[in-house]
């Protein structure tokens, strides 16, 4: 797995990169100290996974994640930070991060997260997963609150999937390439843990989606 490490603290960044580089399954292809540097590094040589800090100068990890997901949806983002605040966790998820771990996580937990995200999955630490579960149980049942891990674009895609549109039709509606739509649909299925498109349609419609975009006939 090709990994880019992004963190503004040089000691942590280089130490963490060295740790990952010592693992046979991982190849660190670069490091970056800011979100701006991360965008440039991914544009030059896209990795499989970016391990992203949150608090950084120039551009923080949340905004960098949002831009990377929009420009390179095939690249998985694992946020690795000191912050346990719910707002930061959900901001990262909404930005499109597919993993969120605290910097105190054990190395094997980090490697499992990177492996899972590289394979298209989603992973969160046990404590954070519990908080997400609490949020689901306490939140009102609007479509946005029922699927808080989806980005705004992924909500749009799920709405059109629930309306029964094909990837080609969704691409036309949203002025995206079919490849980009496929990546968004895959992310939606992964985040919802839906076994297939049919399950995503049912869950989307149960949440009130798909009513305004159904094709004629």
From TrEMBL:
CDD domains per UniProt: LuxR_C_like, REC_NarL-like
GO molecular function terms attached to this record: DNA binding
UniProt xrefs under Pfam families: GerE, Response_reg
InterPro entries found in the cross-reference section: CheY-like_superfamily, NreC/VraR/RcsB-like_REC, Sig_transdc_resp-reg_C-effctor, Sig_transdc_resp-reg_receiver, Tscrpt_reg_LuxR_C, WalR-like
Domain HTH luxR-type: 143-208
Signal sequence segment: none
Cited PROSITE patterns: HTH_LUXR_1, HTH_LUXR_2, RESPONSE_REGULATORY
Record keywords: DNA-binding, Phosphoprotein, Transcription, Transcription regulation
Annotated transmembrane regions: none
Modified residues (4-aspartylphosphate): 53
One GO BP annotation of this record: regulation of DNA-templated transcription
Domain Response regulatory, chain residue ranges per copy: 2-118
Superkingdom per UniProt: Bacteria
Stated name of the protein: Response regulator transcription factor
Species name: Nocardioides guangzhouensis
